[in-house]
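How a chain folds remains the central question behind the approach discussed here. For one protein, we set the task of working out the structure tokens from the amino acid sequence alone. The sequence in question and its structure tokens are set out directly beneath this paragraph.

_____
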Amino acid sequence: MRYFESDSASLAGSLLLAHPSMRDENFERTLIFISINDPEDGSFGVILNRLSENNLDEVLPNEDLGPLAKTPVHFGGPVANDQLLLIAFQWHPSKTGRGQGSWSWRHDLNMEAAQEMVQRGEGVLRVFEGYTGWSKGQLERELQHNYWIVHEPGPEMLDAVDTDELWKKLVRSHGPVFEFLTSAPDNLGNN
């Protein structure tokens, strides 16, 4: 199984944290894992912290899903949200003691490969409806306008139960201004 790995020359392998001021309902308070980032071809990622209310067996009731049946389905983004993506992640702790480690990922899995991976206990599988995408230069422009905070992913990104709290924790780690912004009430007009 071939996994992709972080490349320091691109944002692939990074997390994007929605800026606290973002009010786009598709992306407000989201953590997005960037799987592909190419200045010429654009970028591809999935929202990690938006669970749907369904497991895979509810989305595909007529499929023999074996060990995948009760896998939660996440809302991956507003693009092609009628399609399912199966993505395998593996965490690699730092061997040098510098940095906390890195993720590798595979986003081209079919059901059979995903079932085999789960049976072998290899990596963490996530299922997404849809994805996020940016055309050539679009993500770079959004970063210049501070729509996103780039964050190095850690092992907690796939383990969180309260994903809103994880978003807050990660955003707050970027300094006191962000701590203040994440503490503000959702609707300031209610004060």
